[in-house]
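Late entry, BJW complex.
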Amino acid sequence: MLNSLNELASRLRAAHAVTVLTGAGVSAASGIPTFRGAGGLWKHFSATDLATAEAFTRDPLTVWEWYAWRREQVAACSPNPAHDVLARWTRTHDRWRVVTQNVDDLHLRAGTLNLVRLHGSLFDLRCWNGCETPSRAWRDERVPFPDMPPRCPRCGGLARPGVVWFGEALDPADVASAEALTACDVFIAAGTSAMVYPAAGFLHQARAHGAFTAELNTESTQATRLVDVAVRGPIEQTLLELDTLL
Ligand code: BJW
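Prediction complete; structure with ligand written out below:
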């Protein structure tokens, strides 16, 4: 592991452009459950019952109760050292870019610059009737909501969580930004199971661009066999160690 970390540090020191793709593992040390694996959200809740447009159509109140519970959980959490190190790197030099699948806003709360958010935010809402253009989400950080389910302030219809559910298209502008960032010298997949597309495809694209690739994760994933180095361990510790080597 020391050798992998040293190898990664040496590649990072020489790099002009570094892209870090983050997933739920980055927020685990903040107390936010991941989706898959031990203790993951999908162990207790079914993705298709809760994180799809079909589920919302069937039972909006149940879906909203799940999201309201997660908003409360996240609101009580703070960024951890992994968020802090990444944020500091982006503030120190423009060559660092973070693309996240996380919807908890902890990268933003840590002060990360130029963040690309692929799957939206738990604290953004959109009109379910589509009375505004699809990309026009509004911010609502109230925890708990005064009324359930929350409503669109414009048409009074149902609001929906401003996240990307399975089967829904990501914002094309976010995908384009993330794809452009795969043309980098070093690409790091951090705390993600690398199972969900299109995000999981960015590692393949970075490799095709000739990037040096690394995985930082507590476990092996589908990315492990693809990367140049895999560093095992909690990301909040790995990034602190890496920081001392740069
Ligand atoms: C640690 C750690 C520590 C723990 N330190 N590590 C077959 C092939 C290709 C694609 C598809 C396919 N079948 C279906 C699809 C499409 C589908 C998909 O990819 N499905 C796969 C499951 C196969 N994708 C979609 O539907 C996407 N949309 C799409 O494709 O649209 C096409 C379209 C085009 C045009 C019109 C219409 C449609 C949308 C995907 C949206 C994903 N949404 C979610 C929910 C967000 C809302 C919410 O939060 O409720 O996003 S799903 C969930 O997974 C969430 C996450 O962002 C995402 C990724 O999860 P992540 O971050 O990797 O977390 P985990 O839990 O999986 O992994 C955590 C990792 O951390 C683990 O590896 C741990 O070991 C590690 N870890 N502690 C370091 N301390």
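Strands lie at 18-22, 96-100, 116-117, 120-127, 138-139, 159-163, 186-190, 212-217, 229-232. Will revisit in the morning.
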